[in-house]
Amino acid sequence: MLFFGEQKKKTILLVDDDVSVRTMLGMLFQSQDYEVLEASSGDQGVRLAIEKLPDAIILDVMLPQMSGFEVLGLLRSNEKLAKTPIVMCTARDTLDDVERCLSAGANDYIQKPFDLKTVLGKIQKLLSPA
Fold it and tell me: Considering the domain 11-127, what is its CATH architecture?
């Protein structure tokens, strides 16, 4: 229950099959007072996103069962999630990879290994009022 003047914590959904990446990013965002949700597969990420409607999503490209691009397509086709900021995260780093992420509907792209300040800055920028 929120009291007058209180604001709901922003929620970040981390979708990555690498537990160390989820843990590292989870600790980063929790230290900045974000609520963090975690999914280890694409289908779990889609279910959590639909159920919890996070404020932003960090989505790995290479996931078990369903690729990050498939997840991105499903999220963008959902009316309630179509405008949710999504940052794709991958170890691939060619210009084609960046263009594929952005043309598929991602708001931004992060290359692994990543700098935590860069990740935080990208999310804060995407969540700041226009």
Answer: 3-Layer(aba) Sandwich (3.40)
